[in-house]
């Protein structure tokens, strides 16, 4: 049976969306556990968007749990490396299938296959295929992954690191990170509307790791990565709650929600 896919509106520039592992998996689970209903709702919201779109999803309990168990954030462990990669691929497969069910022409892309890190940071990542896919109306779907590393043997390449790399390489217009919190919250649980390099030092004290298992720094890791993107390229991001119905569609279709991270 042939499937009909949505036509993309290619004129408005590239949008990069992170679907946080905390939004679509249970990060307190001891092994990979998907929030399937949340996934389906989020995919339906993504289907309302017709621009050029790159999706990066987090590893959630499909990655962080095994990465922690085998110490993969510190270096290479053959069995742990294989188990973790297989597990995040499983999640990626589930997400790509779910997107296809909403007529989104999603293409699975494993960062391990086209990236090399040096001491935990991306040294090179091939992105020309992503650009060509977008030109042909496809929706590439990357994910948090393990990666070969010239210093450590291997490392964890978080979605929070690949997302700004891809956004900068493709000169993305909009970058959104959907997670399980309403944005970056202060000590009273209120959303901090904007973070810039100038205000980061004063708000940093409110930002921590993750309530669940997360080997790449949770919220503080995320904010640091996209603040660096804003500083270096001027590309702004929004961190918002992907578990609030309507937010993913609203963000994709132009609204600013949650916490805005910008150069000034
Ligand atoms: N100031 C803060 N504001 C909001 N969340 C915070 C803050 N400090 C710590 N957190 C924690 O950070 C979590 C978000 O980071 P986390 O890495 O778990 O999410 P994610 O990026 O969606 O998941 P993944 O890394 O699997 O993709 C929140 O759910 C919360 O537990
Ligand atoms: Mg995280």
Automatic annotation (TrEMBL):
Domain Aspartate/glutamate/uridylate kinase: 14-241
Binding residue positions for ATP: 18-22, 60, 218, 222
The keyword Iron is annotated on this UniProt entry: no
GO annotation, biological process: terpenoid biosynthetic process
Broadest EC class assigned to this enzyme: transferase
One cellular component term from this protein's GO annotations in UniProt: cytosol
Pfam families recorded: AA_kinase (PF00696)
Positions with a binding annotation for substrate: 59, 64, 159
Alphabetic keyword roster: ATP-binding, Isoprene biosynthesis, Kinase, Nucleotide-binding, Transferase
CDD domains cross-referenced by the UniProt entry: AAK_FomA-like
Catalysis performed (reactions): isopentenyl phosphate + ATP = isopentenyl diphosphate + ADP
GO terms assigned for molecular function: ATP binding; isopentenyl phosphate kinase activity; kinase activity
InterPro entries xref list: AceGlu_kinase-like_sf, Asp/Glu/Uridylate_kinase, Fosfomycin_R_FomA-type
Enzyme Commission (EC) number: 2.7.4.26
Functional description taken from the UniProt entry: Catalyzes the formation of isopentenyl diphosphate (IPP), the building block of all isoprenoids.
Recorded family membership: Belongs to the isopentenyl phosphate kinase family.
NCBIfam families, A to Z: IPPK_Arch
Subunit description: Homodimer.
Name of this chain's protein: Isopentenyl phosphate kinase
């Amino acid at each position: 049976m042939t499937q009909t896919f949505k036509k993309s509106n290619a004129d408005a520039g590239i949008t990069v969306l992170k679907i946080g592992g905390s939004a679509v998996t249970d990060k307190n689970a001891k092994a990979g556990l998907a929030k399937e209903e949340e996934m389906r709702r989020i995919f339906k919201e993504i289907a309302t968007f017709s621009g050029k779109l790159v999706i990066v999803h987090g590893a959630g309990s499909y990655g962080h749990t095994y990465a922690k168990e085998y110490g993969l954030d510190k270096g290479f462990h053959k069995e742990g490396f294989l188990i973790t990669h297989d597990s995040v691929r499983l999640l990626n497969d589930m997400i790509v299938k779910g997107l296809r069910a909403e007529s989104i022409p999603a293409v699975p892309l494993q960062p391990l296959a086209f990236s090399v890190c040096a001491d935990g940071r991306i040294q090179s990542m091939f992105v020309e295929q992503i650009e060509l896919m977008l030109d042909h109306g496809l929706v590439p779907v990357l994910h948090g992954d393990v990666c070969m590393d010239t210093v450590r043997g291997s490392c964890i390449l978080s979605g929070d690191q690949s997302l700004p790399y891809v956004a900068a390489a493709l000169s993305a217009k909009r970058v959104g990170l959907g997670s399980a919190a309403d944005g970056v919250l202060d000590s009273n649980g209120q959303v901090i509307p904007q973070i810039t390099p100038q205000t980061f030092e004063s708000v940093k004290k409110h930002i921590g790791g993750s309530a669940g298992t997360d080997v790449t720094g949770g919220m503080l890791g995320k904010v640091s990565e996209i603040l660096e993107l804003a500083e270096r390229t001027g590309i702004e991001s929004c961190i918002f709650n992907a578990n609030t119905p309507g937010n993913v569609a609203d963000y994709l279709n132009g609204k600013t929600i949650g916490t805005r991270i910008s150069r000034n």
